[in-house]
Amino acid sequence: MSIRMSISPGVPSPSQTPLSSPPPPVSPPPATLPLRTIPGSYGLPVLGPISDRLNYFWFQGPESFFRKRIEKHKSTVFRTNIPPTFPFFSNVNPNVVTVLDTKSFSHLFDMEIVEKRDILVGDFMPSVKFTGDIRVCAYLDTSEPQHSKVKSFAMDILKRSSKTWVSEVLSNLDTMWDTIESTISKSGSASYLVPLQQFIFKFLVKSLIGADPSSSKEISESGYIMLDRWLALQILPTVHIGVLQPLVEIFLHSWAYPSFLVSGDYNKLYQFVEREGKEVIGRGEAEFGLNQKECIHNLLFILGFNAFGGFSVFLPSLVSALVSDKTGLQEKIRKEVREKGGSTLSFDSVKEMPLVLSVVYETLRLNPPVPLQYGRARKNFQLSSHDSVFDIKKGELLCGFQTLVMRDPKIFEEPESFKADRFMNEKGSELLSYLYWSNGPQTGSPTASNKQCAAKDYVVLTAALFVAYAFRRYDSITGDSSSITAVEKAK
């Protein structure tokens, strides 16, 4: 059975499909809900933030950290501290108001009441030297004129890339699975993480930058490693690692890492984009009013942080869900991808595969690529949870932990369980309004005036292609969260 893309002119971009519709506005708090003082506290200066940091990173871990406080305060909205904190983050205020149910969390998408300036990973912001002394789009608020320019540039890149995106995904999947098969035949099992990252890097560079990584031997072989290091040094102070304590707290969570440690890698990537991405850079300058530096640094952030980083977290979760399932899911997916969507794979064909899409959505629900979302109050306003209303003061930082938000028992039945068909049929479609992984609901549309992920629909449809390709190529795949131990070719 063919697994190639059908190429036809005028195929609409994913953002123009039924996968997107205008997001519902945040509704005002119902008058029937009681007004409640926000529970919790920040503790004593220095000691309170340190205690919360150790619980968050070491003694409890993020999920348990939030769950215990929900139970303690009998509320999904409360005050606490989020790392990084003391001793070497004196300019970072760890105080947050957490929003841990779907209703309170949705306030983070209302640009009239919250702003997003420099709070991608909380009050801590990595040095702009990581991005050439440029505040890239992810750190800009929608009120800043530069945000509209760069977001429009990003959406234009995606629209134009739709002509080659699918073919690049499929051709690089060929290479990835050929590599995995070869390793299994030699060693009995294969770690798929490196082939997966090579696949992600190569198809994204070709699709977003319009450049062929093979034009540079070093970029082709090591570009994904360069991005891994560059990304890791920026977010290390905020990421739970969960092993080798107390060494992690002493050496990884106690200070921000300097950009010079990866400046050599970053400069090589910059020069590659400058040399090989002239067409897309030219459009950024001519059509969106950006200068060359702004184009290239934003392109690298979109490529490395948003796209490569996001897929590198999300796709392993998807593979793990598929290979670890014991309910016959692979057989159901195999049947669907071979009976629906025609003989060739495309964005349009995978839209005809409701089970595949539901599996993708369910993976995003349980394992969102970006677990924490933030918003700073632009003004005083009232925030509502399912059962209470709270006064929020201008300047307060709101923090939502999506891993719990999207397990809201008032919205999702059996919220802790992976249910492959959860998002199927009319009832499942309604739940998409509460799928928030993209800095907005899945039913929302990214625009230049909001902060929703520009590639929201591309991520979903690319993941669906990934699944459909795998089960048109194989009857079954056996493995675990990091390796593939056997594949059975399609008969």
What does this 3D model show about the protein?
The chain is of the alpha+beta class and 491 residues long. Helix content is 46%, strand content 9%. The protein has 17 helices and ten strands. It has a five-stranded mixed beta sheet. A hairpin with a 3-residue loop joins strand 9 and strand 10. The chain starts with 46 loop residues before the first helix and ends with a strand.
Looking at this protein, list some descriptive labels.
491 residues; 3-stranded antiparallel β-sheet; alpha+beta; 17 helices; 5-stranded mixed β-sheet; globular; 46% helix; disordered N terminus
Overall 3D form: globular
Q: What is the element string, with H for helices and E for strands?
A: HHEEHEHHEHHHHHHHHHEEEEHHHEE
How many distinct beta strands? 10
Number of helical segments? 17
Secondary-structure-derived class:
alpha+beta
Q: What's the story with the biggest beta sheet?
A: 5 strands, mixed
Question: What is the distance, rounded to the nearest whole angstrom, between the alpha carbons of the first and last residues?
Answer: 10 Å
Q: What integer is the average pLDDT?
A: 93
Q: What share of the residues does DSSP label as strand, in percent?
A: 5-15%
Q: Which strands sit side by side, in order, in the main sheet?
A: 1-2-8-5-3
Helix content: 40-55%
